[in-house]
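worker-03 picked up job from queue 'complexes'. Input manifest follows; four sequence lines, order preserved.
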Amino acid sequence: MEMRFDMAQNGALPPVARSCGGQSCENCVVRDHAICAGLDDADRDALSRIGRRVTLQAGQTVMWEGGDSTVVANVIDGTLKLATSTGDGREQIVGVVYAADFIGRPFGARTPHSVTALTDARLCLFPRGSFDGFALRHGELQHRLLQRTLDDLDRTRAWMLLLGRKTAREKVATFLLDMGRRLRADADGVIDLPLSRQQIADVLGTTIETVSRQMTEMKRTGVIDLVGRRGVRLVDSAALEALTEAG
Amino acid sequence: MEMRFDMAQNGALPPVARSCGGQSCENCVVRDHAICAGLDDADRDALSRIGRRVTLQAGQTVMWEGGDSTVVANVIDGTLKLATSTGDGREQIVGVVYAADFIGRPFGARTPHSVTALTDARLCLFPRGSFDGFALRHGELQHRLLQRTLDDLDRTRAWMLLLGRKTAREKVATFLLDMGRRLRADADGVIDLPLSRQQIADVLGTTIETVSRQMTEMKRTGVIDLVGRRGVRLVDSAALEALTEAG
DNA sequence: CTTATGCCTTGATCCTTGTCAAAAGCGGGC
DNA sequence: GCCCGCTTTTGACAAGGATCAAGGCATAAG
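worker-03 finished. Artifact:
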């Protein structure tokens, strides 16, 4: 088992996080998709007074595995990873979150996994205590949080099938299709992956070499095309879909 | 990849499930631990009128992967597995549930995984629509459901680390300690596993042969003791704990 | 434009685990 | 108490993927 101690990943928040408290919900790009959607103006306003905007740079960590659960947040934009690791440094990415997703552990003392920005990102950050109190008083918000948590659980369990039972080929194919669904391709049909090869390996429970070999092979057979380090074009999605469940 | 089509596992519910509608919540053994705990007498009574008790035999399936989500339930006693599989028959167990746990997919159209009894079991079964309506009107119940779902998600993510990054030895050690925590040992310190070797393999994302070899080896080194097919004694929990994260 | 720094790719080899096959042993039924 | 069926164990072998080791190539800095 290889060990990595990736210092760049562990940059703590700067002493004073760049807060944009002046920003309100009115011009928030995720207001209709995040859990705050459905709140009336007064409630949304009350919630916004609890939170503050925070900007993160790629590589910054907001929450640590096993640390006190002091904050929760909505993702305004950017991509972040949720990860756990063994004592000897093996890492497993247990979730990737995007704009409008919710992060952190409400109603619990500890954060069971770390949260780290993969790209530059903006969050709408709430102290957990205040957020918990607000949620308890607003059934609609709690309901949306429940819906989202149930969906997360479904997705997570589907991923367990991949980790436990799929081959390297199937894992990579599933991953690429999943990225194609979540990320928008540019005019040339190229997707800009928010993850490095190592991080893809950490999502799939395999190694960087295996990911690289599988992707190269898929390029050779014309199923995908690789553009620079982070670019992928899904040339033949049907073929990719087929690779999802067969030798 | 091996394929199994385990017919005994797929026994459908009998045409008329043995219902014990006469049973009330008053003498329910899980009333203080299931999500209904915390409801006042009137509300609990209303909820009980929605549900009915059902008895399952080991091997019976209550919900199917991808099927309509028509019912949800509290487990009164027994052990059940949650599972997903690939089109070619590889199975991954994504959860094991015990007395007082909640099963099924509220607030969603489809059940994303199957639910099958591992031992004889009793459920308190609710039609999903009625349950959803009740939950929407009772914030306390919804809050308990949220708490439980958040805990499930945390446990599930912890299990992803096992599936993606742990060795066979570490997987089996982690599994045995987990069982030791959840199940009570008898006077001799022997735990009666609710899972066959194959099912253990399906939980750990490995094969029956690997599970067997690891357990035999642990017995040889005196860390555990094997008693019949389903019995295990955790002789040296500290040593087992050590095997959880090292070669 | 040139150079330097990491990522990423590629190659060779090893080894853990999966696969195939058969023997052993537990448990239930007669 | 004995036998039969099925689970579990054990063995031999194969292979997919991990590990070790260079080398190539984007990307950013000078």
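worker-03 released lock.
The mean pLDDT of chain A is 91.
Residues 196-198, 208-209, 212-213, 215-216, 229 of chain A lie near DNA strand C (CB under 10 Å from a C1').
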